[in-house]
Structures are given as C-alpha cells and as structure tokens.
Write a structure and sequence with these properties.
The termini are far apart. The strands form two sheets. A five-stranded antiparallel sheet has the order 3-4-5-6-7. Strands 2-1-8 form a three-stranded antiparallel sheet. It is 43% helix and 18% strand. By secondary structure, the chain is α+β, with helices and mostly antiparallel strands. Keywords: Membrane, Transmembrane, Transmembrane helix. This is Knr4/Smi1-like domain-containing protein. Residues 57-171 form the Knr4/Smi1-like domain. Pfam families: SMI1_KNR4.
C-alpha cells in the first residue's frame, strides 16, 4: 500500500510541475507576444492589407527611390486578380525537380511600409514585391534595366537570382498545392 501511495504522490507531483511550467510559459507568452487576435481584428487587418495591396503608392515610391517605377511593375499591380492569388509555386523552365520551384505566399503592397519592413540587402533601390511564408522576399532592383528577380533569405542574408526579368518570372508556369500547373 505504501508503494502505491508513493507512486501516486510522485505522479501527482510530476503532473503538478508540468502544469505549473505550462502555466508559466503561457503567462510569459501573454506578456511578450500579447493576446491572440479576435476574428474582428484579423478581419480588420485583412481589409487594411487588401486596401494597401490594391492601391499602390507610386508617388511615395518614386520619391523614396529617386527613380521612375518601371512599367512591368505597374502592370503587375494593375492585375488585382493576380495580386490576390492564393499561395503558389513558380516553375522555372529549366527546373529539374520540385526543389527548384519558388514558393510565393503573397504579393506585397507597393508602398513605403512594405519597403521599410522588408529585410533586404543594402541597396537603395530594392523593392520587395512578393514573399514566402518565412519572411523571405522576392525583390527587384529598380535601378536595373530588366528588373531581375532576386530572392533573399533573411536568416543568412543569402541572395539568389531567380529570373533575369520580372516579366519572365511572371510568365512561368505555376501551381498551387493541388499540383495543377497553370
């Protein structure tokens, strides 16, 4: 009987310690991260993002970068259906397997807020037009003639060339998670 009581006491003690640890971690999360968003707050944030996405601030960007915004970028932001597209993969024509496909979670609004939030390599004319799920950006250098598309991994700062021109990147076949190339 004494052994059973000892086992129950040990198990109860372990459960209490685990419960206490979880409670402390949740409390710390509340203090550091804040409370979870309500559905109304998420909806408001979505509406604000949509408004920014569909209303490019070309004058702001022209003033900030000190150069004209290329027509191919203006054309992209004029295609609202393309901007609102669900996450997708871009297939370069020379890709041998899926590991060489590029994931685009969303297009980014054409405004200064996007430019300021993006972790891009130094360069005054880098404009982030899309991102993946991990905070990495696809960007173009507005000072370049062809608007080559580059991808920057914010963890290591690695930059890789994706396409020689924005129009080329946007013309490549794509697919969603349903695996249907378009």
């Amino acid at each position: 009987m004494e052994t059973v009581l000892s086992i129950v006491a040990v198990v109860t003690g372990i459960c209490f310690v685990v419960w206490l640890a979880v409670a402390i971690l949740r409390f710390v999360d509340r203090l550091t991260v804040g409370k979870p968003l309500t559905s109304e707050e998420r909806e408001r944030q979505h509406r604000e993002f949509e408004a920014r996405l569909t209303c490019p601030q070309w004058d702001q960007l022209t003033s900030h970068f000190g150069c004209d915004i290329p027509q191919s970028l203006r054309k992209l932001y004029a295609d609202i259906d393309c901007l609102r597209r669900e996450p997708f993969y871009v297939i370069p024509p020379d890709a041998d397997d899926e590991s060489e496909h590029h994931f685009v979670a969303r297009f980014e609004p054409a405004d200064l807020a996007t430019v300021r939030l993006a972790c891009l390599p130094s360069g005054r004319t880098s404009f982030p037009f899309a991102s993946d799920d991990f905070g990495n950006y696809y960007y173009v250098d507005l000072a370049e003639q062809g608007l080559s598309v580059n991808y920057v991994d914010h963890d290591g700062g690695d930059v890789s060339r994706v396409a020689d021109q924005l129009d080329t990147f946007l013309s490549w076949k794509t697919y969603s998670d349903a695996r249907r190339p378009t």
